[in-house]
Amino acid sequence: MKLNLPAVFTGLVFATFVCQTPAAEPETVWLSSLDLTPIVQGWGQPQADKSVTGKPLSIGGKRFERGLGTHTDSIIRLQLNGGAEKFSAFVGVDDAATSDQATLSFRIIGDSKVLWRARGVKRGQPPRKVEVDLKGVKMLLLLADSRGSINFGHANWADAKFLVTGARPVIVGAPKEEAVILTPKPPRTPRINGARIFGVRPGHPFLFTIPATGDRPMTFAVDNLPAGLTVDSKTGQIQGRIEKPGTYRVTFRASNLLGDTWRPFKIVCGDTLALTPHMGWNSWYVWENHVTDKIMREAADAMVSSGMINHGYQYVNIDDCWSAKPGATDPTLIGEPRDEWGAVNSNPRFPNMKALTDYIHSKGLKAGIYTSPGPLTCAGHIGAYQHEAIDAQRFAEWGYDFLKYDWCSYRTVATNPSLTQLQWPYRAMGDLLRKQGRDIVLNLCQYGMGKVWEWGKEVGGHSWRTAGDLGGSFYGIPSALFRDGFDVYSGNELHKHGGPGGWNDPDYLLLGYLSNWKGQTVPTPLTPNEQYTHFSLWCLVAAPLIFSGDITRLDDFTLNILCNDEVIEVDQDPLGKPGRRVAIDGDLEVWARDMEDGSKAVGLFNRGEEPATVVAKWAELGLEGKRIVRDLWRQKDLGSCEGEFKAEVPRHGVVLVRLRAK
Length: 662
Ligand code: GLA
Fold this sequence. Notes:
This protein is α+β, with helices and mostly antiparallel strands. It has twelve helices and 40 strands. The model is unreliable at 1-21 (pLDDT under 50). Bound molecules: alpha-D-galactopyranose. Residues 284, 319-320, 377-379, 406, 445, 469 line the site of alpha-D-galactopyranose (GLA).
């Protein structure tokens, strides 16, 4: 009998021998023993056999020797290749979380099917037992999410183990996606883009550059330009001052060798600025504390040479780190913090602020600056505390058009602020800016405290950050895009408060190349589909479109995201009514925004880990009858629909459409 032959004789004999061996004993593989590096989570690092804060794993008073401590939102993607029989664990919120505000959900998905889920999991509850059969499953996802804020989402997979008879499970990263450019290039004939309305105060310097794509040279003209303004026919820059308040209906015209075009435009001379959300660039997420005059000039150059200016991008804004830094040893960060009259000085990296804003203005762009109401800014530079009036005046003299006013060390002034104290610094700065001889848009950066969206406009703000820094919670976790901006403080309520003159600001566009906080510049951690999601969502909710990646290093894909005129038109719609979520079904969401022309912009989002069909139902959109559907990213009509529109949406992706009656 073959079985009695020594196994080493021949390959054939060896194979026979193996075939007749009794089935291997199932092996226990602990989740925490695997290479955890590919796991992505919203805060900190996954911890083997410990909670995310490094304490012993404990759920509802029960201690566990083994398991994995993570933080929401976390994605553990495991390749099983059919080798695992069973997964078991106990899940819950770790007892060491110092607040019970988090409500978690845990999900286990095998080859696109939900195998197990637990919702409403809170700290202090007993551990929930998980046991799932994995026979035949190739790809397994272990997900833990928080609804609302991710704070204290200390999600434990305690005692988590696989029963394995074949290949051992391996934790893998997100699937690779190709960066597909969906948007056709703008035509070579002239096309006027961007906002259709612009607000200015009487007697103040006016600067607006007509954004137009098409071959250069291009010739610009404006019909019915109000007294006091002139247009440069070569650059499309409109400058001057309007003395008389009123609404001026003008017509922009642009022509080149291939054709000509026109578009109506409204100039509203009155008290309200920021009639559409601001569009521009900010230095923070790429240059952080390395920003210099040279970097800002190069940014202005790049806004023109990349063509971003032709799509409506206007502001070139310095963030923190332009003033002196007390205690710094770097000679380029020190110097007299204030002049003999007490006005703030720039540090040696900004030798001449007026020359810098002149340079930015000469390109047809506007300049922005940053400070804090506290003694110091967030990065420890000189803030405006007790020098608010003289600093506001200085910003105006320097020629700035935009001020971001942070909170940071103001906490040392107002330790436990009442609503009045929360509002005070912003109200004071709002009043001061209104007194200057130029229009300065005010951005409140206090992370949403005291429901700033309810009073930001009243205190003089033109936009207000709705949450903490997107860059902080965002790396690898695209659900932060949805939550940080729009869920976190008031559910789905923010849309009621933004509008012409004051906008919800969920922070910057984190696209292109960004700083990774080690001083290196790395590509955005968002996948291509997540980038489409990011930009679409910002446009649907009428957020400022402020790009904060490296503007001198724009690849074609990033430019395609930033410069789709039909998508930007959603953001810049003159009605100024922010969109909102109209339907949610697990990971699938539909957001919609009413447009001035009666059409609706609709985003079909898939936050899930697998492609899915998302349905936008007329009943949920408040529509009846036939609608023509236009895909905005592809700039293509998809035909007409009645009752609903549905689309296959990729993992973490979006299909953004506009629905018109005809
Ligand atoms: C805070 C703000 C950021 C940035 C930094 C600068 O964190 O929220 O946007 O301005 O300060 O220090």
